[in-house]
Amino acid sequence: MVLRSIAGSRRFGRRAAALALTTALAAALPGPVSSAADAATAAAPARPTAYVDPLIGTANGGNTYPGANLPYGMIGWSPTSTRGDQTSTGAANGYEYGATRLRGLSLTHVNGAGCNPGAAGDVPIMPFVGDVTSSPSADTTDAVYAANFSHADERAVPGRYSVGLDSGARADLAVSQRAGVADFTFPADKPANLLFRVSNSLNGSEDAEVRIDQARRKVTGSVLTGAFCGRRANGGVNNRKSYYRLYFSASFDRAFSSTGTWKDGTLSPGSTTGGGGEGYATGADRAGRGSGGYVGFDTGSDNDVHMRLGISYVSLAGAEENLREEIAPRASVEKVAEAGSRAWDRELRSVRVGGGSDAQRTAFYTALYHSLQQPNLVSDRDGRYPGMDGKAHRIERGQGAQYSNFSGWDQYRAQIQLLALLKPRVAGDFAQSLYNFAEQNGGVWDRWVHINGPTHVMTGDPTAATLATFYAMGVRNFDYRGAFDSLAKQATVPHPDGLSDAGCPGQCTGQRPNLAQYMTSGYAAQDVCHCWGGAAETLEDSVADDALGRWAKLLGRDEQAAHFADRGGWWRNVYNPAATDGAGTDGYIQARNLDGSWVTPFSPGSDRGFAQGTSATYTWMVPQDVQGLAEAMGGREVAAHRLDGFFHKADGSWSVKGGDALRYDPTNEPGIHAPWLYNALGQPWKTQATVRQIVDTVYGTGPTGLPGNDDLGTMSAWYVFSVLGIYPQTPGSADLLLGAPLFPHAVIDRPGRTDIVIDAPAADATHAYVGGVRLNGRTHDRSWTDGGLLRTGGTLKVTLATEPNTTWATAPAGLPR
C-alpha cells in the first residue's frame, strides 16, 4: 500500500511539475508560433487539461481555489488556509496564494465569490502529525493544529490536488462529481491523526455532528450552516442564518489506533460521538467554539492511509450512495484522477483553439476551466435535492440534475451566455433548477442562490436577464412558459418584502424592491427604494425588463413584449443631462428622490446611488439601448469621445487596470461590457484595440492572472469570449459583437448542431485589428451577427491587420442597436 501510494504521488508530482515548468516558461515567451501560416494550421491540443493552471486567480483578489473538482461538481476538495484566526480564513473562499498555512482540506468551495470569507468550506479534514492532547477548537490562533506548506510541495491539476506539509504529512486528493478519494501519508513512527473539523465551515455553523464507527472503519457526520456574506458590514447580519446541511461519509482501508471527539474547549479521548456548532460571529464572539472528531493510525509498519468519501445535501444515506455509485471500492487516487482528467478534457474540448503561445493557451484554457466549474450539482445520484423550502425534493421529469450557486448579478453579463453557447443542456437544467427554487420560495426568484439558500446578495433582477438569454440562445429544456410567467409576475406584482430594509444595502430582501413606486415613478427613488442604490437598481431593472420584453416577443406575447420593452427604456429617467463633472462633460446617470429631485451633491466618481461602482461606470451600463444612450449624450461621435476618456488618462495613456473611480474597472461587473460599446458607436477598431490592451495587460498566467474576483466564472468568461473575438451584445439576445481573435483558429463545438468556426490566420501580437470579415463565405460588413450564427453554426473568416481599418462596419444603418 505504501509503495503503491507513494509511486502514484510521484507520478502525479512529475506531471504537475512539468506543467508548472511549462507554465513558467510560457509566461516568458515573447509571442505565438513563428508565422501566421504555421499558426493557421496548428492543431488544437489533444489534452487541453495540460494547459490548465488552477493556481491562476489565487492572488490579486481573484478568489479562485486550486483544489480538486469536476465540471459542475458538488465536491470541491481544497485547502482552508489561516492567518492565525480560527474564526476567519486566510482569504475569501479559503485560499490565497500568499497564505501558506492551512488548517484542513475542505469538501466544498465556491469559485471566485467576492465576500470574505466567502461560502462553504465545509468539513476541513486535517492530517496532523502529533498526539491530540487538547481541543482543536481551543486552538483559536491555529498555532497547534495547523501546518505550514511551501508552494514547491503543492501540485494542482484539474480533478486532483496534492500538498506536502512542513509537518511531514502529505495529502493527495482526487474527486468524482459527488465523492472523492485521498491518500494521506505520514512520517513513519510518529503519531498520525486525521482531524474532522465538522463545525468549522468558512462562515461558522449552527450545528454539527460526528460519529466514528471503529468496527466498520468509518467516520460520518454533518454540518448545518450557510451565512454566505453574513459578515459583511452592508447588510450581512441579514444572512447570519443556516439554510443547508452537508452530510459526509468517509471510510478507510485500515483500522484506527485511537479515536476521540471534542466540543468547544473539552477534549474527549476515546469518544466516538460528538457535536456542536460555532455560531456565525467572528473573533472573540466565536473563538473557542465548535466540535469535531479524530482518528489515529499506527505508522510503525505502514505510513499511508487511504480514504474514500461521499457527500450529500440530503442525507447520510445519499452521501454513501453517491460514493458507492461514483467510485469503485478499490479505486486509487491515480485512477480517480485519470477519470477526472478525462472528464475535464471532454468539457474543455468544447472550444478547440489552434496556434497562439503556450502562455496564451494556458490563460485561455484556465479561463474556460474556471467558467465551467459552475453551476454546481446539489442533487444526489437518485435525483433528490434540498429545496428552498427546507424540504427534500426530487428533480422534475426530463430534468437531468438540480444545480445551484447562482451569482446572478455577476453571471448574467458573460458566464451564462458562455454556458448557453457551449453547454445548452446544462443551461436548461440550471434554468429549471432556478424555477424549482422559486416555486419553493413562494414565487420569489432570489438574485444570489447558494445551495438552497436565498441570500439576496447584490441588486437588480438578474434571473430575468439570465433565463431570457438562455431562451434567446436556443435553450429549451426547461419549463420556459411557466418560468416566464413567474418572472413576469415578480416584475409586475409588488411583494411585501419589497418594502423591507432587512439586509440593506448589500443584501436587501426585496427582489423587486418597492415595485409599486418603481412602476409609478419609472425609476427607483433613492430615498424610498429599499435597495442598494436607486440609480443602479433602475439600470439593472431596465436591463432585466428589456430582456423580458425580448423573451415575450419570441414567445409571441406582443402585449407583454411592448410593456417590458417600454420599461427597458426607463434608464432615461435617471439620466441627468445637466449632471456635470465640472470639467466640461455633461450628462450622467444620477440617483433621484421620490419627489423627482436629483440626489445631490453629485460627482461622477461617487458611488452614491450605485452598487459597487460609480456614476462614471454605470453611465455606460445601457447595453440594451446604446444608440439611445449615444443620442442622449449628443450623438455617437460625442459618446465615442467620452468613451475614449473612460479608457484613457488625460495624456492619452491607457487606464484599464482599475483603481480610478472615473475610469474603467476590469475587476467588477457593471462596466465589463464597455470596451465593446464602440461597435455600436461606429468605431469598432477602438473595441479591438481596447479589448486587446485588457487581454494583454490585465489577464495572464500565474496566481495574479485574473484582474479581480472571478465571480463564479464571470471574469474568466469575459476573457474566453474576448480572445475568440465575439461577445454577447445584451441580455435577452443571441446577437454577438465581433472583435479581433487572439488565436488563428478556433472551433466552438455544438453537439447536434453545426460547429462555429473562427479563422483568423494572421492572428499574432501585432495583428490586433479587423481588416474584414466573411461569414459563411460572404462579405460581412457589420461588427455583429444576429442569432442565426448560434442557431445554424457557420464559419467566421477574419482578416486581421496591424493598423486600424476605420471604414469596416461603420455604416450607420448596420450598427448594433
TrEMBL record:
Gene Ontology CC annotations of this record: cytosol
One Pfam family of this chain: Glyco_hydro_92
Domain Glycosyl hydrolase family: start-end pairs: 318-801
Keyword list, A-Z: Signal
The UniProt record lists the keyword Signal: yes
Domain of life: Bacteria
InterPro entries: 6-hairpin_glycosidase_sf, GH-type_carb-bd, GH92_a_mannosidase_put, GH92_N, Glyco_hydro_92, PNGase
Residues in Glycosyl hydrolase family 92 N-terminal domain copies: 51-312
Gene Ontology molecular function, alphabetical: carbohydrate binding; peptide-N4-(N-acetyl-beta-glucosaminyl)asparagine amidase activity
Region ranges (Disordered): 263-285
Secretion signal span: 1-36
GO biological process, one term: carbohydrate metabolic process
Transmembrane segments: none
The protein's name: Alpha-mannosidase
Organism the protein comes from: Streptomyces dioscori
